[in-house]
Amino acid sequence: MDLKKIYEKIGFPRLIIASFLIVLLITAAILNIPLSGIWQDIFTRFGMNAILVLAMVPSIQSGIGINFNLPLGVIFGLIGALVSIELGLSGLSSFLVALAVAVPLAIVAGYLYGLMLNKVKGQEMTVGNYVGFSVVSFMCIFWLVAPFRSPELTWAMGGTGLRVTLSMESSMGGLLDNFLAFRIGATKIPTGLLLTFAILATIVWIFSKSKKGTAMRVAGSSEAFATSNGVNVDKQRLLGIVLSTVLAAIGIIVYSQSFGFLQLYNAPLYVALPAAASILIGGASLKKAKILHVIIGTFLFQGLLVVALPVINIISEGSMAEIIRIIISNGIILYALTRKAGDAA
Amino acid sequence: MIVPVVFLVICVIGFFFSGLPLNFLFNEMVFRLSRNLILVMSLIIPVITGMGLNFGIVLGAMAGQIGLIIIMNYGIGGIGGFFLAILLSTPAAIFFGYLVGKVLNKAKGKEMITSMILGFFANGLYQLVFIVMAGSIIPFSNKNMLMSTGVGLRNTIDLNIIRKSLDGFLFKDMTIYPIATLIITALLFVALYFFLKTKLGQEMRAVGQNMHIASVSGINVDRTRIIAIIISTVLAAWGQIVYLQNMGTLNTYNNHEQVGLFAVASLLIGGASVDKASWKEALLGTFLFHLLFIISPLAGQNLMGNAQIGEYFRVFIAYGVIGLALLLHAWEKNKARTQLSDI
Question: ipTM value of the model?
Answer without folding.
Answer: 0.85
